[in-house]
Amino acid sequence: MSAPNRDASSQNPRLLAANLVNDVLLDGASLTLALGNLRRLAPDGLSTAQNLAYGALRNAGRLSFYLTTLCERPLKPVTLSGHLLVGLYELEAGETPAYAVVNETVAVVAERYPGARGFANAVLRNFQRRRAELEAAAEADPEARWNLPLWWLKRLQTQYPSDWQAIVEAQNAHPPMTLRVNRRRGSVADYLELLAGAGIAARQSGEWALTLQRPVPVGELPGFFDGLVSVQDLGAQLAAPCLGAADGERVLDACAAPGGKTGHLLELHDLDLVALDSDGARLGRVRENLDRLGFATKLSATLVAGDAANTAAWWDGRPFDRILLDAPCTASGVVRRHPDGKWLKRPEDVQQLARQQRRLMDALWPLLKPAGTMLYATCSLFREENADQVAAFLARHGDARSEVVPATRAGQLLPGPEMDGFFYARLLKA
């Protein structure tokens, strides 16, 4: 077979989607990074390709089971897998006529691997013939049935014996698109009117939150580029109010990029805010978000690049009234938005990230004023990163106590139809 044509500038969405799936499952690349690289080329088929890739990755456990069962020997070249997984996803989803899915997928395969035309056609048509049999077999395979690596599934079953199935089902669904209205620029009622005028159906889902009936590109949202709204999950919108800041306070937003919570803090209060992130490039996205929201001309935030745990390199010695630590984590609560995460993470990553979280918490605690508050936040479901992490922190720091976070289960938010999974712990300094 000929070598694959990896020309990402192609406009064929099925080719782009197959490349994205291969980037994740074969090369171990972040889907966010792969999409970012693709967006710079601005191919016409990007939106469709993105939807196909996300769908294939959300369902990769089951689709990979189908593909392995249908193939009598390992794929050669292995990059065929991306095309076939995307094709199987489309056939199972049923939103496009099956004949069109088969014809288009085979055509793309034939262009890249002329010798594989017949093989690809046989795999997809065999799936159509054997679909009922394959679906029944997948039900007996945990990774295929639940679209999760076995270690991840077992962890959820152990830590959430009554809720794990609802959690998994929610995480395999398409996420809602939720907006945060910029209260400095208008009201929820005002923005609902703008949406209605644009023919976009939505409902109020939080004090300053709206959930769209169906997702739309941000460019279609009225006033998005003028800072009227931001896209932010309902669970993530709890962070800024939970911190409990007040006008005039000195606040640190540690691990701030891409800036969703930073912007929300500034919408709520006039603050002396330091937005810190270790990645200078990602810090640029914080500035872009703040500029869009209308904070460009105000001395509203100081952006600092640095390792939050290496405080000597960036801290000016002035303590903070509040610290928001949105810590690096497995992102196990948001995998329906980042479906690559469940296939890229490994069991050892949980402990490695827990050590990193501990290092950050211990380093930032001395920067907090007496009677100050640190909000420890993750988008994880795993106890080692959340409740266990906080309990160990309290045991190490006698001047710390925790405070109940309303509307959570001991700080934990479980993913469901309305929101993703998050954890919040308010830590008060004596």
Description:
The protein is of the alpha/beta class and 430 residues long. The chain folds into 3 domains: 134 residues, NusB-like (N-utilizing Substance Protein B Homolog, Chain A, Orthogonal Bundle); 54 residues, Alpha-Beta Plaits (2-Layer Sandwich); 192 residues, Vaccinia Virus protein VP39 (Rossmann fold, 3-Layer(aba) Sandwich). Strands 5, 6, 7, 8, 9, 10, 11 and 12 form an 8-stranded mixed sheet that branches. A hairpin with a 2-residue loop joins strand 2 and strand 3. The N and C termini lie far apart (69 Å). The relative contact order is 0.09. The N terminus is likely disordered.
Give keywords:
alpha/beta; N-utilizing Substance Protein B Homolog, Chain A; Rossmann fold; disordered N terminus; globular; 3 domains; Alpha-Beta Plaits; 430 residues; 17 helices; eight-stranded mixed beta sheet; four-stranded antiparallel beta sheet
